[in-house]
Amino acid sequence: MTSLLKPDFVRMPLDEAHRVLVAKTLETSADEEAWPIDAARRETLAAARELGEKPTAARFLSVRAERVRERFAQADAQASGKALRTCEEAQLKRFPIPKLRSGTLTLLLAVLAYLAGTAADRWTSDGRIVNLLAAPFLGILLWNLMIYALLVVRSALRPFASKKSADAERTSGARSLLEAIIRKTAGLKLTRERRTFVAQMLVLLEPQICAMAARALHLAAAAFAAGILASIAVRGVGTAYLVGWESTWFANDPGRVAQILEAIYGWLPAALAPLPALTPESVAAMNLTAGGAQNASPWLIALMSLLLIVVIVPRLLLAGFLSWRIAAARRSVRLALDDDYYDALFEALVPARREVVLYADASLGLGGTGRPQQDADLDLLFERLRGSKAPAVLREGLRSARVERFSIWEDDPAERFGKLAGMPACLWLDAAATPETEVHGEALRRLAQACAPDKAILLLDLSSLAQRFGPTADNVGMRRALWTRFAESFGVDVVVLGI
């Protein structure tokens, strides 16, 4: 049988991860009548057989989810008389992928930012006078440059960042607010049945949500700059702008102002910024407080080119990159396998679980041949093991042991135990019987011979005596000591049950 070790997570396309979560929700919410206790194990083993040798964990989960969904759809089709295809579609409608309504939010932010940008040029100019040192305009450029630098630093440090610090980044700022709005709108009008499912789906969609929120902010920043650019261009048709500068700190230092303007505009190509030479004399002639000013046309062209190069183009490129990341995130989502549901699936695939043979004495009334009965026997065994000092290895092996009926008085132990051929085995006996060398001793001796060294164990069940006399009664303790000495004389370890 195929053996798979459970990884911490798997990566798969969003559609496949969605089907896995639908199957999980159907199984965990169904009652025992609709989904018997052995049904999950049966589908797990069937999926493993279908895949053959060495499948990936992601492929195993995907194939098994399809089988589970098909079983539930068949049951619904039989109950309702509808077609199987109709019932499968009803499953997906009942548990759909949450819709991340980021498009409307992005468009709204972009429109508001554009309208704000059309009025922003009035913050940087007094009527038709444009101040080249106006703080709002320089602030727009510096803010965008700071954002780019921050993105570069975060990208460089991301491989070294812990998950805790990454989560802290997402809990503050405008982007976290947009992410919260996207999540909230995706989970509107939920029924109680779907809340857990949608919460699990939103964990898968978290990278897309983060990228959508960041893309909305980049497009809003580009729209804001486009609004400024459009306003200047349109108003320039009917307004004769004059350009200059004024400053409290540099009023008597035109050379310093020339250096500042050179740093801002000097790197632009001449085709985009046909500016005059920036010398202290030419800059001094533009001092607004001294009555100086120049024709604004070349400066406005340079300013518009600067907005295009520093803000609009980079922001659109970043938005395009995030659109690619959103599409890539749909192709490969991270499904964490960190709960009992996935543990049970992969435990059923471990061959060692089937290597222990449990012989239950007929006097216990156990050892049924059907798998549901054997599961019930194992559940009872683990209930009576509670509080015992059974080794962890034994507990793990017994979780899916093969239960066989054995009569201590009628069966030939040499014949029954001879087929073990070195496999570990347990003999489950009721301690109410008095040990006899010819009967119980022979069975223990044959068991020790047939099993691998130190792999023969007597499960001594004291539950009937404990119920009759009490778990602390002297005769219960004496019977326990008697059986322990008796079994160990034949080289068989003892694990006590029921007290």
From TrEMBL:
- Keywords for this entry? Membrane, Transmembrane, Transmembrane helix
Give the species this sequence originates from: Sutterella massiliensis
Chain segments annotated as transmembrane: 102-120, 132-153, 223-245, 299-324
Q: Which domain of life is it from?
A: Bacteria
Q: Please give the InterPro entries that the UniProt record associates with this protein.
A: DUF2868
Q: Which residues form a coiled coil?
A: none
Q: Which Pfam families match?
A: DUF2868
Transmembrane helix in keyword set: yes
What is the protein named?
DUF2868 domain-containing protein
